From TrEMBL:
Signal peptide boundaries: none
Transmembrane segments: 6-28, 49-75, 81-100, 120-148, 154-174
Subcellular location: Cell membrane
Catalysed reaction, written as an equation: an acyl phosphate + sn-glycerol 3-phosphate = a 1-acyl-sn-glycero-3-phosphate + phosphate
Function field: Catalyzes the transfer of an acyl group from acyl-phosphate (acyl-PO(4)) to glycerol-3-phosphate (G3P) to form lysophosphatidic acid (LPA). This enzyme utilizes acyl-phosphate as fatty acyl donor, but not acyl-CoA or acyl-ACP.
Enzyme class name: transferase
Family that this chain belongs to: Belongs to the PlsY family.
Pathway(s) of this molecule: Lipid metabolism; phospholipid metabolism
Gene Ontology biological-process annotations: phospholipid biosynthetic process
Gene: plsY
Membrane-topology annotation of the record: Multi-pass membrane protein
Full protein name: Glycerol-3-phosphate acyltransferase
Enzyme Commission identifier(s): 2.3.1.275
Natural source organism: Leuconostoc pseudomesenteroides
Keyword Cell membrane carried by entry: yes
Length: 205
């Protein structure tokens, strides 16, 4: 039990790291909490800081989750990595570095999945990327990716993966409720990649 608690705390500390906030402050002299959606995650990093910073934040947030998911291996524990990974997701969403606030934990959740089941991660990532390349919306891509993960998890006959996928999908949709309203109204912010972004730019000329 003590080992499990230790791993969960370490996972929370890993998840609490805020690369989006730090990259903005150190390299761009911006506090992304004061711009765009005010979120410290990947989407707002793309929106406020640009593609290079957005990709950097995406990778770092992903690695946080992966590192947390690998803790049971490091501690020679048989506990399911998805359970320990929840600590990182909690840390990203409620980071003590910024007053127990945070992002929507999409990339960090994906990182946990990478540590637990790489083939499943690649399937979900493919759906995310395809959706992004069509819609130019990270928020929509995230929700569709997690929805896909929940549906496909049933075919892996892994009840822990399925339960966590369902819980994370509900959580991701809840955290994106304002994005859903903007998508419905056609006012959701776009990243500068993907068909829809370039289509919209062409239509405005």
């Amino acid at each position: 039990m003590l080992t499990t608690i230790t791993m969960f705390i370490l996972a929370y500390l890993l998840g609490s790291l805020v690369p989006g906030y730090w990259v903005g402050k150190i390299f761009y002299h911006k506090d992304i909490r004061d711009e765009g959606s005010g979120n410290i995650g990947t989407t707002n990093s793309f929106r406020v800081l640009g593609v290079r910073a957005g990709i950097t934040v995406l990778v770092l947030d992903l690695l946080k989750g992966t590192a947390a998911g690998l803790l049971p291996l490091l501690f020679h524990s048989n506990i399911n990595p998805m359970i320990i990974g929840l600590g990182a997701i909690l840390g990203h969403t409620y980071s003590f570095w910024i007053g127990f606030k945070g992002g929507k934990a999409v990339a960090t959740s994906a990182g946990v999945l990478l540590a637990y089941n790489p083939p499943f991660f690649l399937m979900v990532s493919a759906v995310f990327i395809i959706t992004l390349l069509i819609s130019s919306m990270v928020s929509l891509s995230s929700m569709i990716g997690f929805g896909f993960a929940t549906v496909v998890s049933f075919y892996f006959h892994d009840w822990i993966l399925t339960l966590v996928a369902i819980a994370l999908t509900i959580f991701v949709f809840y955290r994106h409720r304002s994005n859903l309203s903007r998508i419905k109204n056609g006012t959701e912010s776009l990243v500068s990649i993907g068909w829809y972004y370039h289509h919209k730019k062409s239509a405005q000329k």
